[in-house]
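Now for a typical sample entry:
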Amino acid sequence: MYAMVARMWKSQSAPLMLHLPREQMPSPFPPPLAHALQFLQEDFSIGPEHVEALYLYAKFQFECGNYSMAADLLQPYRTLCTSSERNMSALWGKLSSDILMQNFEAAREDINKLRDAIDNQTFAPPL
């Protein structure tokens, strides 16, 4: 069952994963997010559904205990995510993955990013 679910999420996020920047390779994405999403859509037919599948695949990897893969997938997801709620969730997942892998330097960076995100987050007024 797990193998089937993993294949499903991997295949749905595969078009995006093929174009993710690798270490020691320059990123194919232009700097601003809007341009990156437009670039992916126009040049590679990669849409929001592929970005969402990347998140779900990373979440699945985390739940299976593959924290390294989850962290590797969540980083580019955060770059392409347009939902502040999902972005925050991905940042918490990345922090959790780094802690569970005992990668404390990366976890410290994630905590700083979380602090900034929380400080800059706007909350709806209470009803």
